[in-house]
Amino acid sequence: MKKTKILFVCLGNICRSPSAEAVFKKIIKDKGVEELFEVDSAGTYAYHAGEPADARMRKHAEKRAYQLTSISRPFHPPVDFDKFDMIVAMDKDNLRELRQMARHAEDEKKLCMMTDFSRAFSYDHIPDPYYGGDAGFELVLDLLEDAGEGLYRSLKN
Length: 157
Fold this sequence. Notes:
Elements (H helix, E strand, L loop, with lengths): L3 E7 L5 H15 L6 E7 L11 H9 L13 H7 L2 E4 L2 H10 L3 H5 L1 E3 L20 H23 L1
Parallel strand pairs: 1-2, 1-3, 3-4
């Protein structure tokens, strides 16, 4: 059985995209379908390559039973566009960067925004919590839980 391969992408791959990865992994695990998916995350820039997720993000995620275990890595266009079925950007800047890296129309067809799958929120992006306080990290998790469920439902249908 072919797995659906999803890559979540933000700027540095230490807050939003590793959280999206962890949230979606928990959603598919809880639904008993994790064997149908391969999920990863990356950043459009390599600022934090090799580092774990931001400690504040991990702390807030752990309160909700999410484990942010991925290590930051940069997006690799030739590898990632070929490997993944969906490449999900956290904001418009990341989406623009990914579009610039796309080699052809087939690559661009794989791109979307996480908020495209939102159900209960009207945000047009997942805000970067890096320079904010606790409320920003909690908001990111709220948005990712909502959009993660929406993404799962869209793939299920």
